Amino acid sequence: MDLDASDSVPAPVVDENIPIGTKILITPAIKKRVKGTLKLDNLVAEIAQITPQSNGANTIYTVKTSGSPNDEEITRAKKIGRQPNTFVENYLTAPEIQIDPAEIPKITANRQDIKKSKKSSALNAFLSPANNAIVRSFKSSGGKGLAGFIESMNFDWYNQTTWEVEQEGSIAPKMCKVTINFTPIHDISPGIDHHGYNRAPVYRVGGRS
Question: For position 2, what pLDDT does the model report?
């Protein structure tokens, strides 16, 4: 049965995100390939496989066309002692394929799922400790530690100590004094609250801090 989509809603673009099993219209390109194999009534065609070409050529879509074997196919099958074929695999490119309009809701939902999956993957990649230093620091310290920033950092090289001279191009003192000024950032300002308790202690005290 040939489907007429002349008055239907335009079908989605045929690309590699079309789900396997999507029903398609019986186009002249398909009829040409099934001629001499299946009867051209009550035909059903669907995408069975999608094969992207590594050389940059058009993606190949394996389309499985099901139907009733015609007289020619029945005669051929009897001669070689096999059952007549009830389907033909056709190899088409995207311009030769027309999506059945009834499949549009399924394809739209599938593409929305793919879009959500890509967003979720991007978020997971961003929050991965391997890619995010902040997440990595929280994971390694378990939320302990004190936030802050370094105001200054000075290096005082001890020139009177022994030097590294064995490796060519790496002559330098082996000792260095590093002075860092660190300003903490407290979530709650340290001190005594209105009940007289030490709030946000800056050092461990008792069993609750």
Answer: 45
d(CA 113, CA 107): 10
> HSE (CB half, 13 Å, CA atoms) of 133?
0
pLDDT score for 9 = 53
Q: The dihedral of CA 21, 60, 34, 26: what is its sign?
A: positive
Domain boundaries, the chain: 23-124, 146-198
Report which of residues 189 and 202 the model is more confident about.
189
pLDDT of residue 40: 64
Kindly report, residue by residue over 117-159, the tens digit of the pLDDT.
888 888 888 888 888 888 887 787 776 777 889 999 999 988 7
Q: Which of 86, 88, 20, 12 is nearest to 48 (CA)?
A: 20
Between β-strands 172-173 and 163-164, what pairing exists: parallel, antiparallel or unpaired?
A: antiparallel
Tokens for 52?
């992207």
User: Rounded to whole angstroms, how far apart are CA atoms 23 and 45?
Assistant: 6
- pLDDT at site 179: 95
* Residue of higher predicted confidence among 41 and 35: 35
